[in-house]
Automatic annotation (TrEMBL), chain C:
Cellular component terms per the entry's GO annotation: plasma membrane
Membrane-related topology note: Multi-pass membrane protein
Taxonomic lineage of the native organism: Bacteria, Pseudomonadati, Dictyoglomota, Dictyoglomia, Dictyoglomales
Organism: Dictyoglomus turgidum
Protein name (Swiss-Prot/TrEMBL): ABC transporter permease
Main location: membrane
Length: 286, 329, 333
């Protein structure tokens, strides 16, 4: 709780936190939605925003607001799945490479750096074009997690490398602690904060990737996500037809979502970085 | 004749940690005057504020460091000027009038340009260097004078050894013949041979240029071999000041006695006693005389009142109730 | 001297290509879909007449191409052999033009867009970020940083879309898409070059704004550490002019890690270029990829993925090879 209060003193964190809370409330509202998101023609078509349909309706006869609540929920779910599993890969790679060192480390980091620099989009497109349509959003989350771990693995590895040189490692080894015990009991507490600070960035990346793949028509368009909602609006030429509320809703929501996630991640990583921690000590000028 | 004077100088680090105001009193009410053509040494253990003192004397005061009170005067053209009311013109007298030699361990030269480029940057900011070939010759002569090979001018900093880099830095700081040179631990973090070379170099420069060097180091051995006068600092205050021979032969303050007593002497096999305890915090310094918790001769008075720095003879000043009852207000 | 710098980089270069190509090789085998059957279906669905013999022959070549013939190791070697010859088979949506030819035609557009936007935004972003970082206590510096902070996290697609809506649909200042006016013959006339520029302007700007925002932010972070370095403190103690300190001491040094960062983010920038091209229907590899997806042209998708892997890793190698020019510490060890 103390950490949270410290974070709230940062303006960036406050703004990000407020926006993300509003977005989460929207996502939760989907559970009380009067509509089934997969059904069409449940409302009159192409209505501009009004009291009855606060964000209007689209050309498929769906209420844009309630559609949005489902979209946010599904996009966030994909992001959480992708972030969770990629973190597991990153932790394993980082711990093993950092702790074992030597040739194994060089090999794993070579692989790691390859994943880091490879142009992921064409590869992801290759994969999803093969399993097009059959891709559930859990599956999409899993695929994204396979490609989103390399940066974090690198960060975790360098943290482990520095821990390995510390005295307590030698003390523990000399007193007969097993490697596994050492890694999980002694090193984990240091790795967890890094995992959290990169988690948000990774979620943001996954949401962005989902939107991109959806726009290209490579995800299951039946499931409302921020990407598919946008894709429908574009394929129905919403802009040309003047249905601005349909197009703008996912665009504005995703911009808000990305900006708030970014603000949170910047604020948290500044908080965790001992070098910038000193800057939080306010310097008094005369 | 005094060239630099500090009056009632107080420089604190002001910090706000978690909503609470902290002031680190690194320089607390210091009065000194330093003469022309002398090497003035400042000694004390790490964390006693000696680096902060010379930073303040040099006018390098940036938040969180603040000059809370007091003045520092330079004598420029026979007139004493308070440097804290000089504002912008302080920058312009740097290197011409006063220059700075940093700690030996620091990587103080721009790593991506050749040494000569650093010279152009420093010189060119203060004098006109449009006639580069003449200046290049001047720099080379200066190097020759200091016994440095001129080919290092075309090297990059990382290609030089630590000792050579520090000597180049000294050459850089003295190229414009400044009246005052401020040196902050110039020989620390170098190996013994390089240390000796650096100290010799400083001594020779002073001899030939007849300028003033303010030398800060914790190393009493260095002070013994080079300083003309020494000030001993403890917890942000000067506790004793005297000519070098006087300090070593007749130390008065108990803290100075510990410092001198800790020095090894040839043939002396006695057990060395250092001051017990650790240096005090500068956020919450002890009441009264700041040395009293570690002093074997502490009296009741020492816990309550702050002793004033007074003259025991014309050249020797000490702040201790063993020698005077004067209190600081 | 440089051997210790170069050899690990060459090894990494080969490793990236190896990992990338291996992924491309295994993807069709790990998915539950038979790409060969899918492809044949696509062709027949498009109404192209194929006699059974041709189908059989095509199945054979496709099997070979995707590594579905012989044992795994043989397949893998054969796969490499074809790749190194640049043989990705025929395109399906522009049958029978070879994939490599289609890629070759669209490559210059992407290359132009990518190099101009990458280098300009890297340069501008670093200078701006350096200045913002150096004068961090000034008001305008904080305003600029906040702007970058809001723009940076927006994905390429959304940002390009917003640019397109505002400047093409609403303000009508720029064409809605394409690479040059329809029916115009390429020439070296001023008018044609102007038209090229007019069509490239929005894609360029939308990539550059994002690129600048990212570079600015990382640069500001690096600078905030560099200004605490001893050589900067000392230059200030020496009264060196502020402009010299800002550019020659701070920005010059902070740019070095940014060279490496550019290399590391090249893959992302490239993906961003593909997406931006799609939004503006700019006739480069992105749009080609879009058409390939829309028509299920698996050969073309695979060709683009492979060429991208080769291209990006070569580009990164080039940056790595140029790095010693900027850093004397690597040059003279």
């Amino acid at each position: 709780m103390g950490i949270f209060r410290d974070l709230l003193r940062d303006g960036k964190f406050r703004v990000g936190f407020i926006i993300i809370c509003l977005i989460l409330i929207l996502a939760l509202l989907s559970f009380v939605s009067p509509y089934d998101p997969t059904r069409w023609n449940v409302a009159p078509r192409d209505l501009p925003p009004s009291l009855q349909h606060i964000l209007g309706t689209n050309s498929q006869g769906q209420d844009v607001f309630w559609q949005l609540t489902f979209a946010i929920r599904n996009s966030l779910t994909i992001a959480i799945i992708a972030a969770f599993f990629s973190r597991i890969i990153a932790i394993i790679m980082g711990l093993v490479a950092g702790y074992r060192g030597g040739r194994l480390d060089r090999f794993l980091m070579g692989i790691n750096d390859s994943f880091l620099v490879l142009p992921l989009l064409p590869i992801l497109i290759l994969i999803s074009s093969l399993i097009k349509g059959r891709l559930s959003f859990v599956g999409l989350g899993l695929i994204l997690s396979v490609f989103g771990w390399s940066w974090d693995a690198r960060v975790i590895r360098s943290q482990i490398l520095s821990l390995r040189e510390r005295d307590f490692t030698y003390t523990a080894l000399l007193s007969g602690t097993s490697t596994i015990q050492l890694v999980f009991k002694e090193y984990f507490p240091f790795v967890i904060p890094i995992v959290f600070s990169t988690l948000i960035n990774n979620m943001s990346w996954a949401i962005g990737m989902e939107i991109t793949l959806a726009i290209l028509g490579l995800t299951n368009l039946e499931i409302p996500t921020l990407g598919t909602v946008l894709q429908w609006a574009i394929s129905y030429q919403a802009m040309l037809l003047g249905l601005w509320w349909w197009l703008l809703t996912p665009v504005v929501t995703s911009v808000l979502l990305f900006v708030s996630l970014y603000l949170l991640s910047v604020s948290i990583s500044e908080y965790l970085d001992p070098r910038t921690r000193i800057q939080r000590i306010r310097v008094i000028k005369e | 004749m005094e060239i630099i004077k500090a009056e009632n100088l107080k420089a604190y680090y002001l910090l706000d940690i978690g909503g609470k105001l902290h002031s680190v009193r690194a320089v607390d009410n210091i009065n000194i005057s330093i003469k022309e053509d002398e090497i003035y040494g400042i000694a004390g253990e790490s964390g006693c504020g000696k680096s902060t003192l010379i930073k303040t004397l040099y006018g390098m005061v940036e938040p969180p460091l603040n000059v809370v009170d007091g003045k520092v005067y330079y004598r420029i053209d026979n007139e004493y000027k308070n440097i804290f009311s000089m504002n912008g013109s302080l920058e312009s007298i740097r290197w011409n009038y006063i220059s700075y030699i940093p700690q030996g361990s620091m990587s103080v030269l721009n790593p991506v340009v050749k040494i000569i480029e650093s010279f152009w940057d420093f010189i060119g900011s203060h004098v006109d260097i449009s006639d580069k070939s003449t200046w290049r010759k001047n720099i080379e002569e200066h190097f020759a004078l200091l016994g440095l090979p001129t080919k290092v001018l075309d090297a990059y900093p990382h290609q030089l050894s630590g000792g050579m880099r520090q000597r180049v830095t000294i050459a850089l700081a003295t190229i414009l013949n400044p009246k005052i040179i401020v040196a902050d631990e110039p020989s620390t973090a170098l190996d013994v041979v390089a240390q000796r070379a650096v100290i010799q170099l400083l001594k020779e420069i002073q001899k030939s240029l007849k300028n003033t060097i303010i030398l800060v180091t914790h190393d009493m051995g260095v002070h013994a071999s080079i300083s003309d006068r020494i000030a001993i600092m403890y917890a942000g205050k000067i506790v004793e000041e005297a000519p070098t021979s006087e300090i070593f032969e007749n130390p008065l303050h108990p803290y100075t006695k510990y410092l001198i007593g800790a020095l090894p002497k040839i043939g002396d096999k006695s057990y060395k006693v250092s001051a017990p305890g650790a240096p005090p915090s500068l956020i919450n310094p002890p009441s009264g005389c700041r040395f009293h918790p570690r002093c074997s001769q502490a009296m009741e008075e020492c816990k309550v009142n702050v002793p004033e720095l007074i003259n025991v003879n014309s050249e020797h000043r000490v702040a201790c109730f063993l020698y005077s009852k004067e209190r600081e207000l | 001297m440089l051997k210790r710098y170069l050899i690990p980089r060459l090894i990494q270069y080969l490793l990236v290509i190896f990992v990338g190509v291996t992924i491309v090789f295994f993807v069709p085998r790990l998915t539950p879909v038979d790409p060969v059957q899918q492809m044949i279906n696509t062709i027949t669905r498009m109404g192209t007449y194929l006699d059974p013999k041709a189908v059989e022959k095509m199945t054979e070549t496709l099997k070979e191409l995707y590594g579905l013939k012989g044992n795994l190791f043989e397949q893998y070697l054969a796969f490499w052999g074809r790749l190194l010859k640049g043989d990705f088979g025929p395109s399906l949506f522009r049958f029978p033009i070879p994939v490599i030819k289609l890629i070759g035609d669209s490559l210059p557009w992407t290359l132009g867009l990518l190099t101009i936007s990458t280098f300009l935004s890297w340069f501008i972003g670093n200078i701006l970020g350096g200045i913002v970082g150096f004068y961090y206590d000034k008001r305008w510096a904080r305003v600029m940083e906040s702007i970058a902070m809001v723009i940076r996290p927006i994905p390429y697609y959304i940002f390009a879309l917003i640019t397109l809506i505002v400047f093409s649909y609403l303000l009508k200042w720029f064409p809605l898409g394409g690479g040059m006016p329809v029916g115009v013959v390429p020439s070296f006339s001023i008018k044609f070059i102007f038209e090229l520029f007019r069509y490239a302007f929005l894609p360029l700007i939308s990539m550059m704004v994002l690129g600048i925002a990212v570079t600015l932010q990382t640069m500001r972070l690096i600078v905030s550490n560099i200004v605490k370095e001893d050589f900067v403190t000392y230059a200030r103690a020496g009264g060196v002019k502020k402009k010299i300190i800002a550019f020659k001491y701070v920005i010059r040094n902070a740019m070095l890690p940014q060279v490496t960062n550019l290399a590391l983010s090249m893959g992302q920038i490239f993906s961003g270029a593909l997406i931006t091209e799609i939004v503006f229907s700019y006739p480069g590899m992105g749009t080609l990829l879009y058409n390939a997806i829309a028509t299920g042209d698996f050969n073309l998708i695979m060709g683009i993925a492979t060429i991208s892997i080769f291209g990006i890793s070569t580009f990164i190698l080039l940056i790595d090879l140029l790095y010693p020019l900027f850093d004397p510490r690597v040059r003279y060890r």
